[in-house]
Design a protein that fits this description.
Helix content is 39%, strand content 23%. It binds zinc ion.
Length: 313
């Protein structure tokens, strides 16, 4: 059977089994990198053009508007994220950089908690929105040239960034260089090819909708992201999953390409999390999502890590 054929491909030293194909790209489980990514890998120039001009407009037209609608839930999610960072840092160390800061609401939460915050956001539309909130934002990419200008930080946040980057190991090394000793990093990426998605694809005939090249270059899971960050000089101190939203698909709510149903499922998820937190049992939710993480489940991987000062490259 054609579907069961194992196809190996290689491109410029990257080599591995093809796990999906879309938009003229193959996703390989790369032996060189230790995680799944597309080949060919787009150049920085191709991506820079795509992001500055069309990302928020063409790819995510309702992104900022939706963010505002869900703001009370986001504020709850962000409060928990800062609480974890604060647990691992002394009280006087509150300087944070958000790489890919989007509309700026994560930074705004930090500012209100007494953090000194700065954001880097390549999308003009999102950067403009953040400036309107009175935040310190640079409308650039975090690169070898720009990174040293921003100074050093006690914590760096990168939500939904690493899946878009042609060389995530190089970015993590730059991040390491701008962190103070024992500084913390929080990384959030989609948890792709997760067990629920595999059931949907292999048993229920769903196309792998999460494969989205060229915007999504890398396809991580808990294990592959943990290995990558350890190779780049970090020690993972806490792991959490986000809600396994693809479970709705398994239960019969096919929200793929159905925005209205997608919003309804997302609202149920927010209701569930708000109820748990507002009842004072937020810790039960944290334990549940940590347990999901240990099983490789959840829609996203959330890793908290510390700069490993013993690390020698
Ligand atoms: Zn590779």
């Amino acid at each position: 059977m054609v579907e069961n054929q194992i196809i190996q491909k290689n491109w410029q030293g990257h080599e591995g089994t093809v796990v999906a194909s879309a938009n003229g790209f193959d996703v390989i489980d790369c032996k060189l990198c230790g995680f799944k990514h597309i080949i060919p890998i787009p150049t920085e120039e191709e991506l820079e053009k795509a992001y500055q001009h069309d990302y928020y407009i063409q790819e995510k037209p309702l992104y900022i508007e939706r963010y505002r609608e869900d703001l009370d839930w986001w504020n709850m999610v962000y409060a928990q994220r800062y609480a974890i960072l604060e647990q691992h840092l002394p009280a006087e160390r509150r300087r944070l950089l958000d790489i890919g800061s989007g509309p700026g609401f994560f930074l705004l939460n930090g500012k209100k908690r007494g953090w000194q915050v700065k954001g880097i956001e390549p999308s003009m539309q999102a950067a403009k929105h953040s400036l309107g909130l009175g935040l310190d934002i640079e409308n650039v990419f975090f690169t070898e040239t720009t990174a040293p200008k921003f100074g050093h930080f006690d914590a760096i946040n990168m939500g939904e960034v690493l899946e878009h980057i042609p060389d995530p190991a190089a970015l993590l090394s730059l991040v390491n260089g701008q962190l103070n000793d024992n500084g913390m990093v929080c990384i959030i990426v989609p948890n792709d090819f997760n067990p629920f998605q595999m059931v949907l694809r292999d048993h229920l005939g769903f196309e792998p909708w999460w494969v989205a090249p060229p915007h999504h270059i890398n396809y991580f899971d808990f294990d592959s992201l943990s290995r990558l960050v350890e190779r780049c000089g970090f020690e993972v101190v806490h792991k959490e999953a986000t809600f396994p939203i693809d479970m709705f698909l398994l239960m019969g709510d096919n929200y793929i390409g159905n925005d209205e149903l997608g919003r309804a499922c997302h609202t149920k998820r927010m209701n569930f999390e708000k109820a748990m937190n507002q009842s004072g049992l937020g810790n039960v939710l944290t334990d549940l999502y940590s347990a999901f993480a240990s099983q490789g489940m959840g829609r996203e991987v959330v890793l908290y890590m510390k700069k490993n000062s013993e690390f020698i490259e």
